[in-house]
Amino acid sequence: MKKKLAMPVIRKIEDNEASLIKFEEELRADSAIKEQEILLDYPTVYIHNWKYKKTYEVYIGETNSIIRRTRQHLTDVENGKKWSEKLVENKAELLIIGHEHFNTSLTRDVENRLIQYMMSIESVRKVYNVRGNPQNKYYPEKEFEWIFREIWKKLRKIDDNLFLEESAIRDSALFKASPLHKLTADQERAKELIVRKVMEALKENKKKQLIFIEGEAGTGKTVLNSSTFYELYNRAEEFGLGNLKCYLMVNHEEQRKVYEQIAKKLGLTEQFGEIVCKPTTFINQHRPENPVDVAFVDEAHLLLTQGRMSYKGKGQLRDIIDRARITVVMFDENQILTADQYWEAELLERYKQMAKEQGNYRELKNQLRMAADEQTIAWIDAFTKQRRLIKIPDDSTGYEIRVFDEPVELERAIKQKGRCRKTALSRMVATYDWKYDKKKLPENRVTKYWEVMIKHWHKPWNYQLQKDMEAKERKDIKELAWAEQPQTINEIGSTYTIQGFDLNYVGVILGPSVTYRNGEIIFDPGKSCNKNAVKNRTLSDGTKRKFGEMLIQHEVRVLMTRGINGLYLYAYDEELRKALQDAAVK
């Protein structure tokens, strides 16, 4: 394909009327110029970009007439000021992109990918025209990936401060949660259901409707959530929904920050206010007598089912449903991690049944995160669900499972992956079996950090190294997810920082709470330091029970399913370590 396809054409000009006239005159003056027909008569994609000190704003679009469309932009008015004035003030540039195979579908896919990439770059503070319009089958669909890759290479040569490495963008949490991804057929059906049910509920003034989307880790719940949330806001008028009041919440601080950044870059925060929040904030700020239109809840398994700290209710999902006409939840029972989040079977079944009776229940089944075959997925399932350790398979896709004798060897392997551009988002994580308290300093310790300690080897827990950073350094990484911060290659993550996120390679340290006895994997709450997992839980009948064993099992599953390309393991327990080594012998 590389030899047969022509290279894309990109021209950069100053973003003003005079430069546009000069650009057109130069091309039309010489009919022999290769780019004339491609840029003036074919569909093109374009990027307006202007800079504010260290940040950018961009407008990305596609058109059948770049000259006419650019003149329209230059006369557009925003907040009483012509675009042309705004662009001149900030020394804007216009990049015009063409290719001899461009048709409307191909340019729309290029436009969509460019928008996705620009949204995922930290220095881009706002992206205009973020409608998202991924195409289905078309000719020449198979050429898209190669053409886009060559476009991006040329853009990087023009400005590598704005157009970053593709691998860095695709590894970012913002890219992975982007609402502009092309959805699978499974996700599309769920999205269509949600949009249809929302329209129906609002037009018929229905209340307390529940849509329940169930799926395990890596089945695409976050992208579905993000995509549907944005679709409703983006097309509210088209759908006849008027002044839509729609909120997105998640009981996970790292994921909340990601959604908040997306809302800001899309211009939703500027237009509609703080529409991304934690569940407790939403519940405290809204009343049942004045419900919002739609409440989206990602990671709904993390909702509290009893009061804790600032939440005084008896169940966050119930309180959210009371405050919204329609509630959309993304749920995975296998990712419940604390006693406060434990769902009694009767209660969980009641909500599922409620959704099923309304025709609002869907299950996502396709594994989209891990680039692994069915045998590898089955091996992880056997370990984390059935407590069985079977022979580690040879993965046909190249997914890699490795077992290490020492934690320092695992660290060395993960850091080696971290130095490679394509696998830079590789990190170590561990079960919560070593003390950590973010509000206190370690007592009677040689170091100033809370650490994971195994014999003479030790590494700080997540967010410990920030203590040594200058204020400016901390500010620079403030909006990044834990795994994206460069210093975290020298830290150990936990479920509190990594749940819901992808890594290229994950190095999992199975601590003292995970052992192997008599051919069975044991999850031992007595050796865990996670108080929220091992404490008593008061059930609805007043009895108290512990669920630590089940919650540690869930914790292990969350950690072991983070890696896209590979899982590296070290077990603290000697018997488990030997059993893993035996299982890995080819």
UniProtKB/TrEMBL annotation:
Location of the GIY-YIG domain = 41-130
Tell me the superkingdom of the source. Answer: Bacteria
Task: Enumerate the InterPro entries for this protein.
Answer: GIY-YIG_endonuc (IPR000305), P-loop_NTPase (IPR027417), SLFN_3-like_DNA/RNA_helicase (IPR018647)
Q: What is this protein called?
A: GIY-YIG domain-containing protein
The species is: Marvinbryantia formatexigens DSM 14469
Q: Which Gene3D superfamilies match?
A: P-loop containing nucleotide triphosphate hydrolases (3.40.50.300)
